[in-house]
């Protein structure tokens, strides 16, 4: 399959290893989920190449970490600018391998670039402290230093932004990084590396390797030179990586599964709530960890919300993400389609009513019709498990306390949303939700300026914002003795 690109060299089929584009005999096909066509064949690398990349990152860090923060920020800014300048090509590559509509891909490129720019600037504000000494001749100086070589394992649902969000703070802090992108979507990652090189990221500081997940991750977690692992993906894999990192006490940041509740209270503006539910639920065909997974509507506005939401869901257009006007592209693979089917069947078998959709879509094997289920019972599967697809299950609840209890009744705690206008209720609900991210009267909460991350089994650490660089820094204190008393 040929993609129409102004810069065809952005489509790479080799890995970026220690500053060189490197292939391998064994290859893995990358396919377009909308059509099944092969777009590229990428290398199958493993532990030896990962080790080489880690060594190169360590070597390159020696100089990079000594450069001024302003200097590093200049490189990150140039990289961000290049991404924006090549937004259209990068978006075509992303839609081809991931399936999301082109408009969403363009938005993701800007989102990804925003982390490079933001963290370049944050790097300039990595301040220390001077603490009054505990004895008259002592002073305590606190300094922050790069944590060391970092490793990143990223998912297929945001092939570029999850890299920007991790590599931005790592490089800004003075670290080097080795990335393993999802096997389904490595081409966006490679394209970012082409532009990183052009922006002046030194050879070796950054590598990006495709291949066997456990081989690459095995080296990342067992190599003592790696001092930090950052992962976005399923809770199951995150737990395994955390266990593996315990060997070397390697620091971990984990951004894992969610099961976001979306609450609509009696005092909500229903038109706003419908708009919010639509954008939160159906972004990337429902394949984000912050997508509304369970929609709870209070009895007094239930019928009104459902009627308006039905009208909105019916208008969603399914198709190839490359086509203008597409709202919902394909799902990533067969398993993803099966999971949506299973959740729909389970809910319906327990008494839910199909209002819109309810089955596969005829655009192709990996398409599923946007589906709205009403009167979903709490025993249904989406109550406890992330669907990761275009299924909107609507539940009814009676009291505010019941709504909060249902929302918190999960092992996950990434994002939650609620619509209400009463001031006292707003604060009460916001404070009661056990989530790292809460959207009030909005279904869109993603921005580089806010701390993104979850509680409970949704993960550890925060990405983005002024807090996001902390995970890439170590704190050291210097205890100075023999300081003369002031005269
Ligand atoms: N928090 C989030 O943003 C995401 C959540 N999910 C959730 O996870 C479910 C499953 O999606 P899936 O793609 O399988 O997610 P995974 O957690 O399997 O994949 C995420 C990343 O982890 C890698 N990986 C997979 N297995 C291992 C392993 N044993 N050791 C180290 N790395 C590994 C993958 O590599 P490779 O691609 O080579 O397998 C990929 O780079 C989704 O339905 C969704 O519920 C999924 C993606 C993102
Ligand atoms: O884990 C995800 O699904 C990616 C985060 C999306 C976002 O930042 O909005």
TrEMBL record:
GO molecular function, one term: succinate-semialdehyde dehydrogenase (NAD+) activity
Record's protein name: Succinate-semialdehyde dehydrogenase (NADP(+))
Gene Ontology biological-process entries: gamma-aminobutyric acid catabolic process
Boundaries of every Aldehyde dehydrogenase domain copy: 21-477
Domain of life: Bacteria
Family as reported in the entry's similarity comment: Belongs to the aldehyde dehydrogenase family.
Active site residues per record: 255
UniProt-listed InterPro entries: Ald_DH/histidinol_DH, Ald_DH_C, Ald_DH_CS_CYS, Ald_DH_CS_GLU, Ald_DH_N, Aldehyde_DH_dom, Aldehyde_DH_Superfamily, Succ_semiAld_DH
Entry keyword Oxidoreductase: yes
Gene Ontology cellular component list: cytosol
UniProt entry keywords in alphabetical sequence: Oxidation, Oxidoreductase
């Amino acid at each position: 399959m040929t993609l129409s690109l102004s810069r065809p060299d952005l489509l790479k089929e080799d890995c970026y290893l220690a500053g060189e584009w490197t292939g391998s005999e064994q290859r893995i096909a990358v396919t377009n989920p909308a059509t099944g066509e092969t777009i590229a064949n990428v290398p199958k690398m493993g532990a030896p190449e990962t080790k080489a990349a880690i060594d190169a990152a360590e070597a390159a860090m020696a100089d990079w970490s000594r450069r001024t923060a302003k200097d590093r920020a200049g490189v990150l800014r140039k990289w961000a600018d290049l991404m924006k300048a090549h937004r259209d090509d990068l978006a075509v590559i992303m839609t081809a391998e991931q399936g999301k509509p082109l408009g969403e891909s363009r938005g993701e490129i800007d989102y990804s670039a925003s982390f490079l720019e933001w963290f370049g600037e944050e790097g300039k504000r990595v301040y220390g402290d001077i603490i009054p000494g505990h004895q008259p001749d002592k002073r305590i100086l606190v300094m922050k230093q790069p944590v060391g070589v970092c490793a990143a394992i990223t998912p297929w649902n945001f092939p570029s932004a999850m890299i920007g969000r991790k590599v931005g703070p790592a490089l800004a802090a003075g670290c080097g990084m080795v990335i393993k992108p999802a096997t389904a979507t490595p081409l966006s990652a490679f394209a970012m590396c082409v532009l990183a090189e052009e922006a002046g990221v030194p050879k070796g500081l950054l590598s990006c390797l495709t291949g066997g997940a456990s081989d690459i991750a095995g080296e990342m977690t067992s190599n003592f030179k790696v001092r930090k692992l950052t992962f976005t993906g399923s809770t199951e894999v995150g737990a395994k990586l955390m266990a593996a990192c315990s060997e070397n006490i390697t620091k971990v940041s984990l951004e894992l599964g969610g099961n976001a509740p979306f609450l609509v209270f009696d005092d909500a503006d229903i038109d706003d709530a419908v708009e919010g539910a639509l954008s939160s639920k159906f972004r990337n065909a429902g394949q984000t960890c912050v997508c509304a997974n369970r929609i709870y509507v209070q009895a007094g506005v239930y019928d009104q919300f459902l009627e308006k939401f039905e009208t909105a869901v019916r208008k969603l257009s399914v198709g190839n993400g490359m086509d203008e006007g597409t709202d919902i592209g394909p799902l990533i693979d067969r398993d993803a389609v099966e999971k949506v089917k299973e959740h729909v069947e389970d809910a319906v078998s327990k008494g839910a009513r199909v209002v819109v959709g309810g089955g596969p879509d005829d655009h192709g094997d990996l398409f599923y019709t946007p589906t709205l289920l009403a009167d979903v019972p709490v025993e249904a599967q989406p109550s406890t498990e992330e669907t990761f697809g275009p299924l909107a299950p609507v539940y009814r609840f009676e009291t505010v306390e019941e709504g909060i209890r249902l929302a918190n009744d999960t092992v996950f705690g990434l994002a939650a949303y609620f619509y209400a206008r009463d001031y006292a209720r707003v604060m009460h609900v916001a404070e009661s939700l056990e989530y790292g991210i809460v959207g009030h009267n909005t279904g869109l909460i993603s921005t580089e300026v806010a701390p993104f991350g979850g509680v409970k089994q949704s993960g550890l650490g925060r990405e983005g914002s002024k807090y996001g660089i902390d995970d890439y820094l170590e704190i050291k204190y210097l205890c100075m003795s023999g300081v003369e008393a002031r005269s």
